[in-house]
Amino acid sequence: MRYTGLLTSSASGKAGGIVAYGGPTGQHLRVRSTKVNTRSNAQTARRMNFAAITSSWRSLTDAQRAAWAQAATGKKSGYTLYGSRNLNLFNLGLKPNLTTPEPAPPFPAILSLTATPVYTPGSPLPTLSGFLIAATLAGATSTTARLRATPAYSATRAFTRRGDFRTLALFTPSSLPLIQPLPAWQTIFGTFPPAGTITFELDFIDPTSGAKSPAVKCAASYPTQGGEVPATPAIDAYLPSGEVAVINAPAIWVNTDLAAVAP
Predict the structure, then answer these.
(1) Phi and psi dihedrals of 129, rounded to 5?
(2) Consecutive H or E run containing 163
(3) Separation between Cα atoms, residue 87 and residue 146, nearest integer Å
(4) Is the confidence at residue 68, as pLDDT, over 90?
(5) Torsion angle of alpha carbons 148, 210, 110, 162, nearest 10°?
(6) Virtual torsion, Cα 255, 263, 196, 125, nearest 10 deg
(7) What pLDDT, in 10s, does the model give residues 198-212?
(8) 96-148: per-residue pLDDT in tens?
(9) Are 88 and 212 in contact, with CB atoms under 8 Å apart?
(10) Which residues pair with 178 in a beta bridge?
(11) Burial (0-12, 13-18, 19+ Cβ within 10 Å), 68
(12) How many Cα atoms within 13 Å fall on the side-chain side of residue 148?
């Protein structure tokens, strides 16, 4: 709130919770604003981790920093390479302790990535319960797979920002395909809208060197109730066991006691 009035003399500066300042229309008083930290817990943790990495960089010897500078390629400096690799280890839940750059292992190319909405039987309609994540890899790897996702956006949104993604799960690539339950996504992003598009991202992180593979993205559009999925003749009926529907469509119906289902 701002107050305008006649002051016996010009005034400027802060006093308690009031700020005085002059302008074209005379002297003014307003309540001093208080900064509010709107950062999420994830952003706060990332800032703390990066501050710790920056501090550890200063403790390296000149020879160690020179080794990182020599290992850096492209537009990266030794400092940015050191920071990104140690931050990748933080993302795996490991304590960064890299002092010298380790060679990055060969990562298999991710040939395809799909995320298919999964629905469970409900009344009156099936409801969204998660996403079936499947990927085709060019080879095997012993590194850690990291699945990340964005909030649910309108299908008309044409782009996603790097800062939109949050880590959903860490797993071994050999466990693909896997079902990513919706509650894990809700823990990070909160209540989801009745319909939207979520972008998923998959990459690999080496727990030894902290190196990361190129990421591959895919988008999954969903309605929260299966009855809104466009009907196709391939969806016939539930099996006699009531566990899995006969399907060949953009959505998968499973019973709540199933751990996974093949597309």
Answers:
(1) -125, -15
(2) none
(3) 14
(4) yes
(5) 40
(6) -30
(7) 999 999 999 999 999
(8) 778 889 999 999 999 999 999 998 887 777 888 999 999 999 999 999 999 99
(9) yes
(10) 133
(11) buried
(12) 21
Tokens 């209540």 correspond to 191
**Comparing C-alpha atoms, which of 259, 227, 253 is closest to residue 238?**
253
Please, what sign has the CA dihedral across residues 138, 198, 149, 77?
positive
Alpha helices in 116-163 (DSSP H): none
Instruction: Find the distance separating the first CA and the last CA of the chain, reported in whole Å.
Output: 59
The label of the residue with tokens 């860490």 reads: 170
Q: What percent of the chain has pLDDT over 90?
A: 42
Tokens of 210: 């902290």
**What is the spatial distance between Cα 196 and Cα 155, in angstroms, rounded to a whole number?**
6
Q: What is the dihedral of CA 155, 160, 165, 168, to 10 degrees?
A: 30
Give the DSSP letter string of 55-95: HHHHTS-HHHHHHHHHH--TT--HHHHHHHHHHHHHHTTPP
> What are the two backbone dihedrals, phi and then psi, of residue 113, each rounded to the nearest 5 degrees?
-145, 130
Cα(152)–Cα(163) distance, integer angstroms: 14
The owner of tokens 């999964």 is 118
Q: 223 is written with which tokens?
A: 């309605």
Q: Which of 47-56, 62-71, 235-244, 249-258 is the most confident on average?
A: 62-71
Pairing of strands 110-120, 252-253: parallel
Instruction: Give the helix/strand (H/E) hosting 44.
Output: helix 41-58
Residues in the chain: 263
Distance from C-alpha of 120 to C-alpha of 114, rounded to nearest angstrom: 19
pLDDT tens digits, residue range 225-236? 655 443 333 333
